[in-house]
Design goal:
By secondary structure, the protein is mainly beta. The protein has 2 helices and 16 strands. The chain has 2 domains: about 100 residues, Jelly Rolls (Sandwich); about 100 residues, Jelly Rolls (Sandwich). The protein has a 6-stranded mixed beta sheet, with no helix packed on it.
């Protein structure tokens, strides 16, 4: 190569995709509903859907291949499958990234980063009795009126969330099988201004593991 000539491999060998590839050509865009996107041509994938997307495998991969997924849409991306090993069972929020490496036909997650504020979900007027907690660790209620929550949607086994009420309206966490289970409370848990409750999900149930001292569970 002549002196001064550009060497594309100097950069392309370190990059997962060509510069401006998504903006100009949408290379690596995951089609809506594609649960097993191909990584035969691209190692940099973009999720850009309005609704939830579940990825169960990456097709056409090679041993040692590194794949990165960037969520540029408004939906939550989840990785659920026997051959996809995650470090975090919660969903990948907006502007979040996740990286996997292939070994022995399985994909192992090596890093994950949520977008700014992805772990916190702020709710004004609830209205929804089963708010989603996908990719959420802290759910904050700020309503002036009373509301009731019967369950939290889109949770995963082992996920822990804290429910915090900063509004004037009381929020009732309704005790019921297949939803929220309030241990030793004798019924529902009413969370008022500045009170909080912590729950962990297992086998479809949300178990209350802790709460503000004045709620009587500590």
């Amino acid at each position: 190569m002549a002196q001064g000539s550009p060497n594309p491999s100097r950069f392309h060998s370190l990059a997962l995709g060509k510069f401006d590839n998504f903006k100009a050509r949408t290379d690596g865009l995951i089609s809506a509903g594609d649960t097993t996107p191909s990584v035969g041509l691209y190692s940099l994938l973009y999720a850009n859907t309005a609704g939830a997307l579940i990825i169960s495998y990456f097709d056409d991969g090679s041993e040692g291949q590194v794949v990165k997924v960037i969520n540029v849409g408004n939906g939550i991306v989840s990785f659920v499958g026997a051959q996809i090993k995650v470090t975090d069972s919660s969903g990948l929020g907006v502007d979040g990234t996740a990286e996997f490496i292939s070994h022995n036909s399985a994909w192992y997650e090596t890093t994950r980063a949520q977008g700014a504020g992805a772990d916190v979900r702020l709710i004004g007027t609830l209205g929804d009795a089963t708010p989603t907690v996908s990719g959420t660790r802290l759910i904050v209620a700020n309503s002036n009126g009373a509301d009731t929550i019967t369950n939290f949607d889109d949770g995963t086994t082992g996920q822990e969330i804290t429910f915090l009420n900063i509004g004037a309206g009381a929020v009732t966490l309704q005790d019921s099988a297949g939803g929220i289970l309030v241990a030793d409370s004798g019924g529902n848990l009413v969370v008022t201004l500045s009170q909080s409750a912590t729950m962990v999900q297992y086998s479809g149930n949300w178990y209350v593991t802790g709460a503000s001292r004045d709620l009587g569970l500590l």
